Amino acid sequence: MLFRRTCQTGNFGGDRKLMVVSDGSLSVCLVARLFTESSSIDICSTTSLSSTHGYLRSPNYPESDYPDRQRCRCRLRASSRIVVRLLDLSTATDGRHAAADDADSCPSSSADLVRVSTAEGSVSRRYCGRLQSDRLPETFDTRRADAVVEFQTRGRSRARGFWLAYTS
Predict the structure, then answer these.
(1) Domain locations in the chain?
(2) Is the CB of residue 163 less than 8 Å from the CB of residue 39?
C-alpha cells in the first residue's frame, strides 16, 4: 500500500530544518530543532518582550545547572494571539512527572516548574518534570496578545530546564 505524507515546518524563527531522505523506494521526512544560545533569551534576564516570535529558555539551558531558588517572570506582548510551544522540558521534581492543566499535578511547593498564562491569569498551564519526546512540542494557545511565562525553582536537585518558542 502506498501512502503519502507531507513534511511541514512551522514559522518559529528558523528553529527547524527540514531534510527529506530517500533511497528511491522509501522517503523519510526528518525535522530537527536547532538550539542556539544567541537566538534564545534567558527568562531571568528580562521582564518583557514585544515581538511576533522568539525563544525563551531557563538560565544556562541546555546544561544541567539552572540556579536554585529562582522566580523569573517574562511578559510577552504581540499584536495578535500568542501561541507557546514547549520544545524541551526537564525540571527537578519530588518524583512526580507531569504536564497538567491543574496546580495539583505540578505542586508549586515541591517542584521546579514552568507556568504559561494569559497576562490577566485567567487561563494557565503548568509544566514540571520531563516531557517525553513523543509529547513535544507541547502547545498552549493563550488566545490573547499578552501572555506571561514564569520559571520557578525550589532548590531541589538540578535538571536541564526548558526551551520554548512563541509566535503570534
Answers:
(1) 38-167
(2) no
